[in-house]
Amino acid sequence: MSVIIEPNVLEYHSPLTETSTNHITLHNQTEDVKAFKIKTTAPKLYCVRPNAAILQPGETIKVSIIFLGLSEEPVDYKCKDKFLVIVLPAPYDIESGRSVSDVWNDLETEFKAVAIQKKIKVVYSPTPAAEPVEEHKEPTPAQEKQPEPTQQQQQQQEIPPQPVKSTAETKQEKNEVYEKKEEPSHSTTPAPAASMEPPLSSEQQDLNSKISPSTMLFIAIIVLALGWLYY
Questions:
Q1: pLDDT tens digits for 139-156?
Q2: pTM, whole model, 2 decimals?
Q3: What is the DSSP string of 150-212?
Q4: Which among 36, 90, 180, 184 is placed 20 to 30 Å from 197, CA to CA?
Q5: Which alpha helices (H) appear in the chain, and where do they start and end?
Q6: CA distance 80 to 154
Q7: Can you tell me the distance from the alpha carbon of 63 to that of 44, in angstroms, rounded to the nearest whole number?
Q8: C-alpha gyration radius of the chain
Q9: Closest Cα to residue 38, out of 90, 109, 101?
């Protein structure tokens, strides 16, 4: 059975320009009264409360190690600061009006051989060691409930998209339509125009039927010859 001193490392997180507090815990597992004192290599940067006190049998004391902060944030976060915790037996009653610090030299001289000592390092950390907290995110306007689609929109969604036709297919369809337009329609074909010449009499028709092509050619040659002689 002994005195338990925790932790092994004191860790301070950025920003290191601000004040922060850590703790050293001492638990007396023995049946004897103990006295302790805490020393540091950087007394200007830390405030220890209490830095010396009596530890009764079975008692636990939590000592506050207050980091006063640096003048500016360090670059490499390296730290060489240390704490030394010394525990000595305290079998004698301390007179009223006196503290452990007042009688510490006497106790150290008498019980130095049985003293309990523990060194505690200081570590600077650029980020705080915090447990992840699940953030509650408010829904964005895009994530809010959308209005229900109207009947017309539903019908448009149900119509499957039509395949896109190529330029060659479109041109071929236009040519087919143009050829259909050019074809004559029986229903729209206009009737032939009536002849403006007066109808021939039956005698003229009989005469024309009796004249042979050779006779008409001979008459035409005679007419041309007379016309040439006349001019």
A1: 665 555 566 666 666 666
A2: 0.55
A3: PHHHHHHHHSPPPPPPPHHHHHHHHHHHHHHHHS--TTTPPPPPPP-SPPPPHHHHHHHHHS-
A4: 184
A5: 100-111, 151-158, 167-182, 202-210, 213-230
A6: 72
A7: 17
A8: 61
A9: 101
